[in-house]
Description:
The chain is an alpha+beta fold. The protein has helices at 9-14, 45-52, 59-67, 115-120; strands at 4-7, 22-23, 29-32, 55-57. It has a domain at 1-80. Helix content is 24%, strand content 11%. It has a four-stranded antiparallel sheet with strand order 2-3-1-4. The longest helix has 9 residues, at 59-67. Residues 60-121 are annotated as: Disordered.
Amino acid sequence: MARYIKANPKVARFLNLQNDRLAVRDGNYILWQADMLAFGPLFRLNETLTAIGAISLMPHEAREEQDGTVTRPLPEATDPRFIVTPTTSGDDADAEPDETVSEPDVTEEPADNNHLNDNLQ
């Protein structure tokens, strides 16, 4: 049976599907099972989902997400390219940070987008 994949916006952008797939109420996307072929064969779907921080949904579960009746949380991705930093909400949003951390001035090489397939095989 075909499955749907709930994934964060970084995954949708990586696959260039942010304008072609459904964005749900929590800001994540419902992708198609076939979209996961970009990361490797479907028999490794569980490994792919772990790497990108996504979950597999049955059709009725995808419909619940679409309708907004159920919002399932996503696990944290193990691939650093797909880790989403949680946003603060509520009273903590106005709080001042305890320390300021500056990024070092380092020039990095462009990311090689093809190495995810190597990690999953």
